[in-house]
Amino acid sequence: MADLSGKTVGVVGGGFGGLSTACYLADAGADVTLLEKNEQLGGRASRLEKDGFTFDMGPSWYLMPDVFERFFAHFDHEPSDYYELEQLDPHYRIFFKDGDQIDVRGDREHMRNVFESYEGGAGDRFEEYLDTSQEHYEISMEQFVYEDRSKLRDWVDPDVMRAAPVGLKLTGSMQSYVEEYFENPKLQQIMQYSLVFLGGAPKNTPALYNIMSHVDFNLGVYYPEGGLGGVVDAVVDLGEELGVTYETDSEVTSLTKGKDSFQLEIEDGKQEFRFDNVVVNADYAHVEQDLMPEHERQYDEGYWEKRTYAPSAYLLYMGVEGDVEELRHHTLVLPENWDSHFEQIFDNPAWPDEPAYYICVPSKTDDSVAPEGHSNLFVLVPVAPGLSDSERVREKYREKILDDIAENTGVELHDRIVTEEQFCVSDFASRYNATQGTALGLAHTLRQTALLRPNNRSSAVDGLYFTGSFTTPGIGVPMCLISGQHAADALIEDQGTLTPSQD
Ligand SMILES: Cc1cc2nc3c(=O)[nH]c(=O)nc-3n(C[C@H](O)[C@H](O)[C@H](O)COP(=O)(O)OP(=O)(O)OC[C@H]3O[C@@H](n4cnc5c(N)ncnc54)[C@H](O)[C@@H]3O)c2cc1C
């Protein structure tokens, strides 16, 4: 067992990475205080309560249930100690803008037939694709996701050598990989859309991430009781049980390493904290560039300028009168050709002319998120990070999206909206100190994968660690939970108190 008794650790930021690392460190005996800028915990998984509606502001897909089970199991718990799960069927509905529609379901035989109906032989290739995806998922989770290989020497390992030939074949793009299996553009889109969870595009995301299809089709899509906010509550409650102290409304404005401890100022001197160690969950670039003195930064401004940031998002949360029959809990609306949307995110930043977007209707599954007789919806359009989002532009885009929903799904919302809120690039920047207003962190391009992502351990300052979607393993709630474990393991290892936790 690790023993951090007598050690004080400060965690900066209360997103999933910060909440997770706080649990692991408190469990190892440390006296942990988590400092969060905002009024609530959860970070990008915040909740918005308005006029009787409860919106999950960020994540809404509960994927990779295996990761949540493993997380809670470390503390001798299981997810059902905190929340129940409901498997969604269909996983989601897709409206293609040419009028076509597909329900993507967990039933493999059904999906095999759907694929075959679009392209002769695609049914068999669908099976082959998913079997391979499962194999890649199992190798990558055990060898590269749970195993933190942050140094070059960590890659000199017989298991890595065995996995290397497969890994090298998968460094090409997801675009070419999927094209080898399916010609029909709709089938290609189904296999590629889950890349948006990683903040990437088919052309800039390595084929390694075909594992997302195993996540999507084989592992299933769930709704946790209370939404993703219910999962935040669960991890916060677990932390409380383990002795973590949470301080909300506590924005750290300076972080420096003194002789024996770290000094953290809240709101320019309103309060000061001292800790033996610090784990940062707030965006890596924000903390290094805005809070730390230059000589304590691991990366310079040029480094952060050259990164590929994952998209930001235009979000429209709506409370609506009546049902929205045509939609499912998760619905995607996709143009026949979505290349121009990705180009307007990554190559020539602009508001998407022909957007691909996502609509979430949690009230389909959960009565508590909307007053009786109403629906709870949000629309998410991925947009370029750093895009200008003045009030005027947003209003115009709101109209465009409501028209597009009516045209492509048949759901007319204009006159039924009883409450609404928008959230966009500048809100990500101001609410979360998000670099360039990114919704997700650093995109999973080849150059920003595995040990090419910023490290959990600072090489510039001893005793300083990082967790969350800017570091390894990456973006998404499951990855950030694992990232919290990596950061805690690195700290524990450096204390020399024991072997990092392996479970
Ligand atoms: C719209 C949207 C939809 C998404 N959909 C999904 C999904 O369906 N499924 C999924 O798995 N993932 C999804 N994600 C991604 C997932 O939500 C994130 O990857 C994950 O929640 C990020 O966690 P994190 O640990 O990086 O911390 P963050 O959530 O980024 O939290 C960092 C925290 O640090 C705080 N902070 C910043 N600066 C300071 C400071 N100076 N002092 C103190 N605190 C500070 C911020 O306020 C914030 O609370 C989505 C994200 C968004 C935005």
Helix content: 25-40%
Would you identify the regions where 5 or more consecutive residues have pLDDT less than 50? 498-503
Q: What is the typical, i.e. mean, pLDDT?
A: 92
Annotated CATH topology of the largest domain: FAD/NAD(P)-binding domain
Query: How many β-strands, per DSSP?
Result: 19
List keywords for this structure.
Guanine Nucleotide Dissociation Inhibitor, domain 1, five-stranded parallel sheet, seven-stranded mixed sheet, alpha/beta, Guanine Nucleotide Dissociation Inhibitor, domain 2, disordered C terminus, FAD/NAD(P)-binding domain, 503 residues, binds flavin-adenine dinucleotide, 3 domains
What does this structure look like?
With 503 residues, the protein is α/β, with parallel strands linked by helices. The chain folds into three domains: 8-84 and 225-307 and 442-494, FAD/NAD(P)-binding domain (3-Layer(bba) Sandwich), CATH 3.50.50; 107-219, Guanine Nucleotide Dissociation Inhibitor, domain 1 (Orthogonal Bundle), CATH 1.10.405; 309-432, 2-Layer Sandwich (Guanine Nucleotide Dissociation Inhibitor, domain 2), CATH 3.30.519. Helix content is 35%, strand content 19%. It is built from 15 helices and 19 strands. The chain has helices spanning 16-27, 65-74, 108-118, 122-145, 158-169, 174-181, 185-192, 211-219, 227-242, 284-291, 301-306, 339-346, 391-409, 425-432, 477-495; strands spanning 8-12, 31-35, 47-50, 53-56, 85-87, 92-96, 101-104, 222-224, 245-247, 252-257, 262-266, 271-275, 277-280, 312-321, 330-334, 357-360, 374-383, 417-423, 464-466. The strands form five sheets. Strands 7-6-15-16-17-14-18 form a seven-stranded mixed sheet. A five-stranded parallel sheet has the order 9-2-1-13-19, with helices on one face. Helix 1 (16-27) links the parallel strand 1 and strand 2 (31-35). The radius of gyration is 22 Å and the shape is globular. 51% of the residues are buried. Residues 498-503 have low confidence and may be disordered. It binds flavin-adenine dinucleotide. Flavin-adenine dinucleotide is lined by residues 12-18, 35-38, 43-45, 58-61, 63, 197, 251-252, 281-282, 286, 313, 315, 380, 432-433, 439-441, 468-469, 475-478, 480.
